[in-house]
Amino acid sequence: MTPFRPITVFGGATMDHAAATLRPPVPGASNPGVARTAPGGVGLNVARDLARLGERVRLISRVGADADGDAVIAAIAADGIDPRGVTVSAGAPTATYRAAFDQTGDLIIGIADMAVFDQITPETVAPALAAASDAEAFVVDANLPAATLATIVAHASDDGRLVAAIAVSPAKAVKLIPLLGRLDLLFATRREALALLGGDGDPARSTADLAQMLSARGVARVVVTDSARPLAVAADGAVRLFTPFAAKVRSVNGAGDALAAGTLHGLAGGHALFEAIACGLAAAAITVEEDGTVAAALTQEAIGTRIANAG
To answer: Would you call 37 helix, strand, or coil by DSSP?
Structure first.
């Protein structure tokens, strides 16, 4: 694939509140556990992961005029990401994501309060698009309003930039349906893929079938994940399955974002998707071995080592 750099990410920047039980959870009761708070959000996680892998990144998002917003902006600056595209709302608080995990690190439930992203409209994103004229690739996540996603994707397509999309959740993924034919790359979980396929998405279908069906809808390259099970990658008329790298899981929060960032890093270096996915699998494995959504251990060197050990 033709190398591309720099990368502009349009998406969510949040304050994440995560809690994990110490024993198998008991519904409807208080459960002993541990909790942490840290900046997160799909767009922010992907941008931070890319920056840690040496990519030059700009983030376009919106936060509130509050302490959470200050913490998010500080995290952006700490990783060397261009923060000028992160605007501040006077009327809405910084988005929050509250997640509960069981003792194995698997997600029980997540609750997203992200009304501030509704303020990222086609009109307000126009200056960011103009400022991103040097970017050779756009990454969008489905936290943004449908009209804004359409504007960004059209702008990227018209200028010949690579455009990648991250589905985020089944509820938000549907905003990408009208855009499938203009996407160069799509990351979706199994449930998100079913949402994108609507009535054609038979829950009994394999991830390979789902990836192939999304490819048939016009997406040039597709990655469909299925928790710890093999993920499906569709590109160049073929579909291949890849097994996640072995890892000592502490939390799966941020794993999908790391998979996307690592894969994009591989593509940005000129690798084909079937090769670049190894970078994504390595990044995800490194991330799940830490409690945060962005792993302190994530580096280009760590990616190379993890790939070599998996071979």
So the answer is: strand
